[in-house]
Write a structure and sequence with these properties.
alpha+beta; Immunoglobulin-like; 2 domains; five-stranded antiparallel beta sheet; four-stranded antiparallel beta sheet; 32% strand
Length: 233
């Protein structure tokens, strides 16, 4: 039996028989305890890193977690409400995201007129196939005169997105955490028929690192119904 393999009781018994070995035994025992503590710390740190994954942000409030919890599983997704975090913000508008069992993510928007908890809708879940494309964007909330668009850039080095608005001006939006973005646009939707802007992902120095043309508004049918697609590529 070596000091490194001894149990606490065995160490005490050995010390009673051979007190002159206290220095050696103490050194071995202390090193054994330190090794065990370090191993436990590695396990804890590893578990923490695995739990955080790629989705980071400030924890979502209970109302948002409750909203994700109302998502109907019949729609094909199973959000994890407990992992919900804040990923983007534009003034008083906020975007929350969480992972799901299908390997992608789900989104909930919070605005002054659409508060999670008071009018929960379960959020919007994105398929894994769409989530893996470089840029996704789409409608997440809106009123007659305001449209809120959100999405994500999954390209390394992206710091913002830039795209033309229906009125001809250009909007640049910084990315929040984990590549997500959120922006609200004033004005009625579908005023210029279909709206399919090219969305460019920019690095911190303004270099285009990815670009996608995505239809955010479209007019359908003889009656000119205005359709605002969800988040897609």
């Amino acid at each position: 039996m070596s000091g490194a393999d001894a149990s606490d009781a065995e160490v005490l018994a050995l010390l009673r028989r051979e007190p002159e070995r206290v220095g050696v035994l103490y050194d071995r025992y202390a090193r054994r305890l330190l090794t065990s503590a370090l191993a436990a710390a590695v396990v804890i740190i590893g578990a923490s890193a695995a739990a955080s994954g790629w989705l980071i942000g400030a924890p979502a409030p209970p109302s948002v977690k409750a909203d994700f919890g109302t998502y109907a599983p019949q729609l094909g997704f199973h959000p994890d409400p407990g992992s919900a975090v804040l990923v983007a913000q534009d003034g008083s508008d906020q975007l929350y995201a969480t992972t799901n069992s299908e390997g992608s993510y789900c989104l909930v928007a919070s605005t002054p007129w659409k508060q999670p908890g008071s009018n929960s809708d379960g959020g919007t879940c994105i398929s894994k196939e769409i989530a893996e494309t470089p840029i996704v964007a789409g409608f997440v909330a809106g009123t007659e005169n305001v449209q809120v668009f959100a999405g994500r850039v999954s390209v390394s080095g992206a710091a913002s997105i830039s795209f033309p608005l229906p009125d001809g001006s250009t909007r640049t939006v910084p990315l929040g955490t984990s590549g997500f973005f959120l922006t609200s646009i004033n004005g009625k939707a579908c005023q210029s028929s279909d709206w399919s802007p090219q969305i460019a992902a920019l690095s911190s120095d303004g270099t285009v690192v990815a670009a996608s043309t995505i239809t955010l508004e479209r007019v359908e049918g003889d009656g000119g119904a205005c359709v605002l697609p969800g988040v897609h590529s």
